[in-house]
Amino acid sequence: MDIRQNAIQRTVWWKVDLENRQRGRFAGFSLYVSITDVSLDSEIKSSTLCYKDGPQLPPLNFTATCTEHGRYVIFYNERLDGITYPQEYELLALTELCEVIIKGCETSVYGSSCNVSCPTNCKENICHIQHGTCSACKPGWSEMHCNTKCREGWYGDNCSQQFTGHCIDGTTCNHVTGLCDGGCDTGWTGSVCDKGLLEFN
Question: How far apart are the C-alpha atoms of 154 and 167, rounded to whole Å?
């Protein structure tokens, strides 16, 4: 006897409830990005906020563009006492994620195919994943792509340090270190040529 031919059930089905209840539990969530592993609420909230949902109910098939740099992406939701939430929100914060896809580039590259190198002078080789602009520059460089040396007489991080020394023959200091690469002018000494030499006759 073949049980398949005598089985009562001749059909099979699967269903999921896509009404507002699931959307109401999902509503109000946040996406955070962190360089370090975090798990406490206070640590999560001190991470970089990438996206905040609300006040309308979110779609269940959701896409967010987040251009932050980090190692961890954190989905966070809450229903706290003493806070009034929109009427459509469910009272409990539940996570019902079926699938999460995170796309991104390794550090030092950007672009839709992650095949363009970040500008050479981006600090820690980190740049914007879409545009290639640097989040910060290595010392001695400025502008969005860190391709401009500090203006004459300035050096260091963000070109924020002003040179006050005296380089040989009035030359300018090194835009990265602030040192006089050719040495100090006559009568001056010190690591940045800012100490006058005493002359005795």
Answer: 13
